[in-house]
Design a protein that fits this description.
This protein is an alpha+beta fold and about 160 residues long. It has a single domain, classed as Aminopeptidase. Helix content is about 35%, strand content about 30%. It contains 6 helices and 7 strands, in the order βααβββαβαβααβ. A 7-stranded mixed beta sheet has the order 1-2-3-4-5-7-6, sandwiched between helices. β3 and β4 form a beta hairpin.
């Protein structure tokens, strides 16, 4: 079941994010890795920046999250994570399809680590295309606030929904 989650669910959301993000350890630049990967305050700040988080539950346990942030001319997919023990079961695809349904007419962008080949492949398999490096840098500067090292090691994928 997919539901919207709020700031009161920070602990459950962080459980998913910080479990799933362990997959990045040793893949992303060492200077970009921290434990926990996301803190309470960082997630609270995301809610304050109008990020909406949706979650997928199995037997009343939150096992996957995926957020969106609607900006003026694009919608960003933010914080897409599935508990490590539930990956590869179609949960990410279900969450993504749910976001497609609530964002029928928009330009969807997602940024991820270039080394996270599983994530890049997931989005490519779901109708996104990978931007070229020059476009990636422009998009990251325009829509995200990330450190220079993260910019250098990230990619941006896009899917246009509906009539846009």
């Amino acid at each position: 079941m997919i539901n919207k989650y709020t700031e009161k669910d920070v602990n459950n959301i962080l459980n998913v994010i910080n479990d799933a993000s362990l997959k990045y350890k040793g893949v992303i630049p060492e200077d970009s890795w921290e434990e926990p990967y996301m803190t309470d305050q960082e997630l609270i700040d995301e809610f304050a920046n109008n990020v909406r988080i949706f979650g997928y539950t199995v037997d009343d346990e939150l096992v996957g999250v995926m957020g969106i942030q609607e900006l003026e001319d694009v919608t960003l997919i933010r914080h897409a994570y599935i508990l490590s023990g539930h990956q590869g079961m179609g949960i990410g695809r279900s969450l993504l399809e749910y976001l497609f349904q609530i964002n029928k007419n928009c330009r969807l962008l997602v940024g991820t680590w270039e080394g996270a080949t599983w994530a890049v492949r997931f989005y490519l398999n779901n109708g996104f295309f990978l931007h070229e490096r020059s476009e990636i840098d422009q998009l990251l500067k325009k829509y995200w606030e990330v450190p220079k090292l993260q910019m250098e090691n990230s990619v941006v994928l896009e899917k246009t929904m509906g009539d846009n």
